[in-house]
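Appendix B. Chain record.
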Amino acid sequence: MAGTRDQWGTKLGVILAVAGSAIGLGNFLRFPVKTAEYGGGAFLIPYFVALLVIGIPLAWVEWTLGRYGGRFGHGSGPGILHAAVRRPWAKYLGSIGVFGPVLIFFYYVVIESWLLGFAWYSLTGDLLKAVADKQVSAFFGNYILLKTTILGMPAALFFFLLTFAINFTVIGFGIRRGIELVN
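Structure tokens predicted for this chain:
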């Protein structure tokens, strides 16, 4: 199997993965608040115009570049840009494209770990108790400031490491048996 690359199993799998990475948390966490705060439904007009004029064409360009680079065995920004431009400096410029996803990965793992931690505290009843005692702000503050512990370590750190391990496990299973299956 050396030299073979993992492939998507279904079109639905790749569409869900692309949509999941393109939509992002901002559309769930910030967009509804900003929409209500700055004009309600009127804000949807420039949003959909930007989606049609900028978002979809850029997605097509990115997808096309990925498929083009894949024909040469490249699956990363440096390799794809080097294959497309065919200049030695292109792979170095393409390496800049690796830093953004790495930073986004860490941001998402932090948010995911908070959600996992808060889900845990919901299941154990601790979050409900904090709500009943009107101590939600203190509860979340203690969690984020690493004052809450699980197994002798700060709970936020515990859930971050657990989430990090879960993410790498999914990635380790590859495209078809990992990412696509989870999607």
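Further analysis of this model is presented in Appendix C.
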